[in-house]
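User: Just a sanity check before I run the rest of the batch. Below are the structure tokens for the first item. I only need the designed sequence back.
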């Protein structure tokens, strides 16, 4: 796993034209430590690896894939289940780190926006934002076994929430995805993952004691 992550980081960093050395190695180490926190069950290194692997498979399609890679490194770097500003704090960290390593202001701003897109509050305004969100949501279209594992991992992260409340909130969230005209914004991921994602979500909603809301 760490070899894949090291390759991803160094490739993106070099393509962005940023200076390599002890400073960026330290930053990568800080990010790995953040992602490797013991309280993380789903939002952990495996999720980062899966996201970067998905990006690798479509590397030639986004406009600025190296920026997407760095944004993925940061997108859940700060993750506290009781907080509501994780994406903003992660995006701010990304922008500060990039600026501190000599990145142009526009590059830092674009990466900040990509991280903020993973709030899933609105449709991204850029084509690369659509790639960012689709990659982050790739787990929804995973195999039934991996998706079931994902649901169990999310429940572990929210173990402090009472069962009845968790089921109600989780059911409502999954129904929001099902109510969309399409879950995925890019033609590539829509063709690849839309149908399995809808099957997974419908089954999960049913398991949580509800009926899926169809568009």
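Assistant: Here's the designed sequence for the first item:
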């Amino acid at each position: 796993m760490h070899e894949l992550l090291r390759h991803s980081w160094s490739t993106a960093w070099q393509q962005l034209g940023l200076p390599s050395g002890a400073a960026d190695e330290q930053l990568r180490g800080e990010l790995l430590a953040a992602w490797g926190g013991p309280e993380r069950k789903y939002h952990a290194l495996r999720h980062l690896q899966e996201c970067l692997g998905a990006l690798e498979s479509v590397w030639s399609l986004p406009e600025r894939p190296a920026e997407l890679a760095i944004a993925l490194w940061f997108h859940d770097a700060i993750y506290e289940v009781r907080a509501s500003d994780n994406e903003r704090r992660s995006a701010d960290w990304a922008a500060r780190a990039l600026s501190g390593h000599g990145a142009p202001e526009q590059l830092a701003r674009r990466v900040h926006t990509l991280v903020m897109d993973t709030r899933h509050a609105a449709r991204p305004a850029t084509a690369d934002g659509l790639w960012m969100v689709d990659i982050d949501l790739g787990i929804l279209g995973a195999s039934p076994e991996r998706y079931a594992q994902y649901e169990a991992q999310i429940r572990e992260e929210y173990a402090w929430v009472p069962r009845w409340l968790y089921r109600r909130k989780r059911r409502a969230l999954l129904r929001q995805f099902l109510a969309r005209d399409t879950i995925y914004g890019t033609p590539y991921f829509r063709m690849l993952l839309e149908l399995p994602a809808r099957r997974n979500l419908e089954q999960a909603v049913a398991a949580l004691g509800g009926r899926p809301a169809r568009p």
